[in-house]
Hints:
This is Aromatic-L-amino-acid decarboxylase. It comes from Shimia abyssi. This protein is of the alpha/beta class. Among the domains are: 3-83, dopa decarboxylase, N-terminal domain, CATH 1.20.1340.10; 101-346, Aspartate Aminotransferase, domain 2, CATH 3.40.640.10. The chain is built from 15 helices and 13 strands. Strands 1-9-8-7-6-2-3 form a seven-stranded mixed beta sheet, sandwiched between helices. A four-stranded antiparallel beta sheet has the order 10-11-13-12, covered by helices on one side. The radius of gyration is 24 Å and the shape is globular. The structure holds pyridoxal-5'-phosphate. The site of pyridoxal-5'-phosphate has 14 residues, from helix 6.
Amino acid sequence: MDWQDFARWGARIADWGRTYHETIRARPVRAQTAPGEIxxxxxxAPPTVGTDMExxxxxxxxxxxxxxxxxxxxxxxxxxxxxxxxxxMLAEFLATVIAPQxxxxxxxxxxxxxxxxxxxxxxxxxxxxxxxxGVIQDSASSATLAATLTMREKALDWQGNQQGLSxxxxxxxxxxxxxxxxxxxAIWVAGIGxxxxxxxxxxxxxxxxxxxxxxxxxxxxxxxxxxxxxxIACTGGxxxxxxxxxxxxxxxxxxxxxxxHVDAAWAGAAMICPExxxxxxxxxxxxxxxxxxxxxxxxxxxxxxxxxxxxxxLVRTLAIKPEFLKTHGQDxxxxxxxxxxxxxxxxxxxxxxxxxxxxGLEGLQRMIRNHVTWSHELCERIRTTPDFEIITEPVLSLFxxxxxxxxxxxxxxxxxxxxxxxxxxxxxxxxxxxxxxDLVIRFTAGQVSATREDVLLTLDVLKQLTGDLR
Length: 470
Ligand SMILES: *Cc1c(COP(=O)(O)O)cnc(C)c1O
């Protein structure tokens, strides 16, 4: 392929993208293919001779597109959104064309310096004070792993990386049952072990960790000769949007001198609206925070903002060189690969710059406020629809509900078949979760181009598809 072909195809794919997005509502949100359909359409062996782009692109349309679940569909109400706005796509295209590696300052000074500035723009946007600096990670999972490793090294007086864990104290980390599974995996990968992830019971409608139980669990561990290392709190848990009381958690942490990491992967984006910040009152007391601009801020995957109070601790944990002997950020040189597990790094800051400049904070705030307002409106309509009950109240744009016609025995089975029916229908996409053991249906709005009509269509679909389900 020569550069003239590249330019021609670049323009054609941009045009294809316009049509795709303009007509996306006509597609079923969740892929309607059966397992094996796509792999069977792909030749078993690689081609020995090259072909032309026209043939490849035709196969892309016929083989790939039917097997795509449309995350940018405005009626994608499953999981959490993974928003991609047009300016973020264009920035990604530019970053892909230049394809720099951004592990050291000198391997692309613009990428490093823009990352520093963009992290600070994000910090200001979500209302964190200026004691935080940060880094862009590939995912919240990586940020939480980096935070867990930092807790581990601090608690072991920086001996874990050097000696391995087998001869050192048994570490303990605390969280509720509402945190994301990335916390479990961080504990495994950090060598701390699932048995040392202590689950603290939650209380109240916010499903927050009970601070008295947290304090008691830590005290009991110390008495038993174990070594508490840190607490992982959540703002906007994945299942139902649980929010720990950050101030209360930080009070307990301060008493025992423990590290606090806050996972706000989804809800953090909403903090660009000051009126939602009471969900994480006390956040400036945390040691580290993660939120994903790639979820609800229109900065397409992958882009995870990891804020840290003390970057020296993170660098001391992850840098190969004894970087703690140097100054970070003060001489203008930061090597971000020393702030994360992978060495190689993509130029992710560019898409934040494009998105924030094109929409401004006002544009993004308007989008998030709309999603929240419309989700609340839908919730009220479902609440007053016969045979439906709201199970967890909206946290921002996330709530759960259940179809519960009187006299029906197995509601779990009924609701799972309703979810399956909805997703086979394809007009909207929802997922299920469990609340107190019951299977419930989960709704969250967050796609950039969703309208009020898209959100409210959910009720029509529910009414239609429950019609003959009973
Ligand atoms: C989505 C999510 C994660 C995982 O995010 P990745 O960036 O995919 O690793 C972690 N925690 C919470 C609360 C989430 O919603």
